Amino acid sequence: MVDHSPLWLRLVTACLTSTIVIFLIAPLLIVVGVSFTAGDYIAFPPQGLSLRWYAKILSEQVYTSSFAMSLWVACLVTVSATAIGTAAAIALHREVLPGSRAISGFFFAPIILPSIILGLGLLIVWSRVIGATSVLTVFVGHFVLALPYVIRTTLAVLTTSDPFLEEAARTMGAGPWQSLWRVTVPQCAPGIAAGAFFAFNISFDEAVVSLFLRSPDIMTLPIQIYTQLEFSPDPSIAAVSSLMIGLTIVLIVLIERVVGLQKITE
Amino acid sequence: MDRYPQSVALIAPGVAIMIAAFAVPVAMMLSMGIHGDQGFTFEYILAFVTDPFYLGIGWRTVKLALIISVVCVLVGVPLAYVMARGSRRLRTFLLICVTLPLMTSVVVRTFGWMVILGRNGLIADMLFDLGLVRRNFSLMQTETAIVIGMVQVVLPFMVLTVLGVMQRLDPRLEEAARVMGCTFVGSLRRVVLPGAMPGIVSGFLLVFSLSASYFVTPMLLGGARLPTVAASIYEAATKTLEWNFAAAQSLILLCGLLLLLFTYSLAARKANG
Lengths: 266, 273
Known about the structure:
The complex is a heterodimer.
Chain A: H1 7-35, H2 52-59, H3 61-94, H4 100-112, H5 115-130, H6 135-158, H7 164-171, H8 176-187, H9 189-205, H10 208-212, H11 221-230, H12 235-258, H13 261-265
Helix pairs in contact in A: 1-12, 2-12, 3-6, 3-9, 4-6, 6-9, 7-8, 9-12
Chain B: H1 3-32, E1 35-36, E2 39-40, H2 43-49, H3 52-85, H4 88-103, H5 106-117, H6 122-129, H7 143-166, H8 171-179, H9 184-213, H10 216-222, H11 229-238, H12 243-271
Antiparallel strand pairs in B: 1-2
Helix pairs in contact in B: 1-12, 2-12, 3-4, 3-7, 3-9, 4-7, 5-7, 5-10, 7-9, 7-10, 8-9, 9-12, 11-12
Family (chain A): Belongs to the binding-protein-dependent transport system permease family.
Protein name (chain A): Putative spermidine/putrescine transport system permease protein
Domain ABC transmembrane type-1 (chain A): 67-256
């Protein structure tokens, strides 16, 4: 075994890596710091410590109602995208359908296509064909964005599963739907769960498509934050943002526990 | 075999919704860029490409996306290498540091940058204390602010794309190069970089297309005086309600990005013989 690398290079690497990590995390830490300020203005470092801005957002209807809307949309997206995405992933994994590759390319297109194009398309076509955009439009947009992530995580687990278990179930007399429900679905459960967490995260945090559909009736939490940032931000925005960061951390921990982040990135 | 009808039943709902909610709206919207009330027209496209104001917006978009992508390569590739070759614990730690911002809403992250870069923000205070700038200095409403904010927004995509490729590189190749007398830097240059090149290039393309089409961060950090194409699309779609013009600009943006991908795949095919 050769000596790894010279000392100076290790030092440079350590410095570089910590700088990048600080750069990536700093905006989040600053936001959390600002949220605990006792002062009236957004300032870092915070002027004194207090929870007054958290108390404020919990008692203000603009925040509680937009939180409720985001939660409602995200839950709907999670349930529907997980169910439909899992089914699609199982079918894609079998590779029995003609054009499987083309279909999976189609499913993954929203990841590659700029979401501004989806947002504009939904806004124009919905307004022309159906009428005023509503929460339903936001749900549809978030669904399209979340679906590929559910399919991807489920496929990632399916590729490591045992293909013969399903066959065994069939040989033992289980019907096609019975073996699907009793054997295949439990096998990819971790992938399904991770996909559900991603779907929730994508919908809850999504701002681009929602901004295109923005109207007084459509005020999800990210849109509420954006609107405040355009006009008069005060530390209550930091408190809302910190709660959103907290929720993201919970979701990451859940994904790490269920499948492991490593697996998702491979 | 009855797996076939079952597979059709499993995939049908997803395909149906994706056609109705994705393919049809996007296609209809894009076609509006070359269709007016009197049928086919290049009017909206020409309105963009003949107006120096919009050409300036286009140039700014390309320039910023290019700077952001190059910075992401310079910063992201070394980080991905450290992650791929570091210990398991270091990798998990760094992976969390990359995924946490990635999964945090873009409005929240941009807000953080507004606090850091704004008047009386951390950067301004630090530069003032060093005596480098006057009081009330602010980086907000500058292209520098857009680049800083956007690099943080898209860097995780770069790192994860490159990491995916680097983890598949056999570390023994590097060892072999070292045993044969190659220096550490030499092994990076001759073994790691060529091996990771496909990942670096696809990461670059991904980050470029993301930065060219983002508007939340550029609009909040750059302000109305520094519009990009995406911000101009958003203006036309929601403020001035010129939908055909918004569609035409989307068409131009998309064609530009597709042209880039096409050139790359041609070049890749040529390079592979």
